[in-house]
Amino acid sequence: AKEQGRNNYQFYTPTVHTKGIKRLQMETMLRHALERNELVVYYQPRLDARTGKLVCVEALVRWKHPQLGMIPPDDFIPLAEDTGLITRIGETVLKQACRQRQLWNRQGVPPFRVSVNLSPRQFRQMDLPEVIHNILADTGLAPEYLELEITESAAMQDVNYAILMLKVLKEMGMTIAIDDFGTGYSSLSYLKRFPIDVIKVDQSFIRGIKDDSEDAAIVQAIIVLAHSLNLDVTAEGVETSEQLEFLKNQQCNEIQGYLIGKPMSAETLRDWIVLENT
Ligand code: C2E
Ligand code: CA
Ligand code: CA
Ligand code: CA
């Protein structure tokens, strides 16, 4: 065992090297994916908890690789964030989502919003309002149809910057949601200062509602707090009818999760809407 211990670093070095190569390969592949339009956007429904009405769909990117099949965002978004490719990916998603919503408008699909995730790096980009303005102008979409999701931790990185940036975006007419809420340790006084509309309670808390009384208490407290600040609460990752019942009893406003519907292609979503309404 001691011998092995001494040699450890020899194994370690090539592994790090391989990892570097893999990263480079992945980055090159991702650049190609952008050029070949292999990134597609899926949409997950979010319902009003009381009425069951479809209020919003979340745009979630997928990489349709011709050989490897569907690659989930967790496998390439972090790398894209590190390398800066996220800026282009983010724009592609925004464009696709706005174009799709505008297409739905022409097809007479009900006027629910589309929410798009902004990465921390995208959010730090000073020209973000201009980028979004141009996409809205190009697609002809009214800003009221667009919601922007920024994680609690990204908002907390630089609170004063976040307040200013969110103000600009909100004044443009978009809705603002704080994503993965409860994981970013924001203090309540900041929450009051953020010009936001929606809080999305992180799915880790929803998962624990039934078996973990602390999680249930946290969710309950977040809902009360959000309502006292006139914010809507969305629960993400709702998978069971027990969770749904609890959330309804706590006056949670909106629900999203596999119990309602998984992320799906734009075409599948249209069929899903028709089915839900019959
Ligand atoms: P997120 O923004 O928190 O998105 C919610 C994730 O939870 C999605 O995973 C969704 O498919 C999954 N989910 C929804 N309901 C349930 C449920 O009931 N149970 C479980 N177990 N999972 C559920 P997805 O699509 O794999 O995305 C993962 C993350 O990747 C997202 O987390 C987001 O951080 C990031 N992401 C996805 N698309 C984009 C994008 O266009 N831009 C950026 N910057 N990030 C993105
Ligand atoms: Ca999100
Ligand atoms: Ca989330
Ligand atoms: Ca998450």
From TrEMBL:
Residues 23-277 form the EAL domain. It comes from Paenibacillus aurantius. Coiled coil: none annotated. Keywords: Membrane, Transmembrane, Transmembrane helix. It comes from the Bacteria. This is EAL domain-containing protein. The chain holds residues 316 to 593 of 605 of the full protein.
